[in-house]
């Protein structure tokens, strides 16, 4: 695949969708860290999901083989993506559907808005979809006078609270049930004033609220977890059943899907339907797995449109290291194990894709220079790589993107960054024994500063302001060796 696939330019699209924040990650993260309630909510939720996931993964004797199979299928898909997308288009069209190609978020929003307008409907119901969040579809629909109604419970909470998602799988993970009760009382028409914060009661209130939408709305918009190229079949997996209502009741169904979601064969789907639920929700299988192929007379929507979204993905494919991020199946396992995400939450990342996968996906979709702080939003501990069901080497991509950022900085400013100068000096010192030994002796001068939390003096204080200064030993190994 070349960088001009689907008519895309050599650089990623800019200025559209929800892929960047208004401030760098360190600034937003500092504010999140000060919110004790947020940290309690995140710690409880991610800990619960981790425990459930670990339990069901432990039941599978060939889990590592499944992971490797998922990785191999995704690598094969990316290697021949144009061919598979053309095969998908042919199969969907033959089954009575219509395929649209969208180069970026602006074009995708226009296509969907025009399709909804053509039906005469002024309201749509939506299945949970990261792709539509990415392109800012809700805002585009509202600007056209069309009301989007989120039907996923967590997405509904975010929408009613005029909030933003902070997790891929559980968008309202930053809210506790007391906060959700207040949102329902304030924003949900006709809700019982005596509403309690019991989860079952809150879910029942949302169900009553949505029932009217399901029965009176004739257009639905969905994403897709997978698309099978050989049959033209689309698949959505979920836990609540609201998605199935959207996929079966309306007259018109519009699916917006990132081009990387295609897989070659029906048999490949078997692998991902084992990997995804265990890694994401800690379930052996998804309670609701909905699949449809084009249009079936007198059964389900009679007008089906598939919008294939590029929005920077073709540019990612040109990067042999970074393209791994397109293997992502949106399970959120990396978020649930990340120590950085658990303490800052998703809003600090500024993108609809938070956590480790967002730190490598968002900068590539927008251009690294537009999201330069995200590749540094990691301790490189590697927990994300260990948890990923398709074995995306997120730490290596993070280092790769950091190098790209440093190179871009050097090219723009015609001089190396302070970090580059420091690293070069350290490399030279370590390559010359007398200098290295002298540096070891002088490092003892930092023991008092480190003990009192002052770190290193400027300009090195920029490093220790966010890190604990390790205490140098009272004796170096070389000195100990000479004595013995």
UniProtKB/TrEMBL annotation:
Domain LUD: from-to ranges: 85-295
GO terms under biological process: lactate metabolic process
Residues crossing the lipid bilayer are none
Per its record, what are the GO molecular function terms? 4 iron, 4 sulfur cluster binding; metal ion binding
Domain (Lactate utilization protein B C-terminal) spans 412-484
Q: Which InterPro entries match?
A: 4Fe4S_Fe-S-bd (IPR017896), 4Fe4S_Fe_S_CS (IPR017900), FTHF_cligase-like_sf (IPR024185), Helical_ferredxn (IPR009051), LUD_dom (IPR003741), LutB/LldF (IPR004452), LutB_C (IPR024569), NagB/RpiA_transferase-like (IPR037171)
Give the record's keywords alphabetically: 4Fe-4S, Electron transport, Iron, Iron-sulfur, Metal-binding, Repeat, Transport
Q: Which residues form a coiled coil?
A: none
SUPFAM superfamilies on file: 4Fe-4S ferredoxins, NagB/RpiA/CoA transferase-like
- Gene3D superfamilies linked to this entry: Alpha-helical ferredoxin, NagB/RpiA/CoA transferase-like
- Which segments constitute the 4Fe-4S ferredoxin-type domain? 325-392
The region called Disordered is annotated at 1-21
Looking up PROSITE patterns in the UniProt record yields: 4FE4S_FER_1 (PS00198)
Pfam families reported for this sequence: Fer4_8, LUD_dom, LutB_C
This protein is called: Iron-sulfur cluster-binding protein
